[in-house]
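QA checklist item 7 of 12: single-chain prediction sanity check.
[x] sequence parsed
[x] length recorded as 141
[x] structure emitted
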Amino acid sequence: MSNVTIYHNPGCGTSRNTLALIRNAGIDPTIIEYLQTPPSREVLSGLIKHAGLSVRQALREKETLYKELELGKATLTDDQLLDAMEEHPILINRPFVVTPLGVALCRPSELVLDILPEPQQGPFSKEDGEAVIDEQGRRLG
């Protein structure tokens, strides 16, 4: 069983790049497609807490639904925001990654490198062509 889990949306480029970086470290992660299998409220709250984020920081503000539900209102409580995320998982920002070294919301995808238990095994470029890892498996930039 893998010791790395990604809460993944295959339709998201950042999520795909993060998954590819995990695999570039030779890790076969547990993949949870959270739109099909949303995390429970308890799991979601734990991910947010362990990533050191506020509930608001874990919201995907770019979603149309965010504006439709008026989730930008400062008067909304964490419980109300979690209610919305639980009812509409598309509002959960992605991807969250859990490893033995920590939990991170990997936006940008390179943030996963800080919590991977294994080094990169070779070069890696994002889908847009941006080089992230060199031939020796070292982080660029």
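[x] summary fact logged: The helical segments are 13-24, 41-50, 64-68, 78-87.
[ ] second reviewer sign-off
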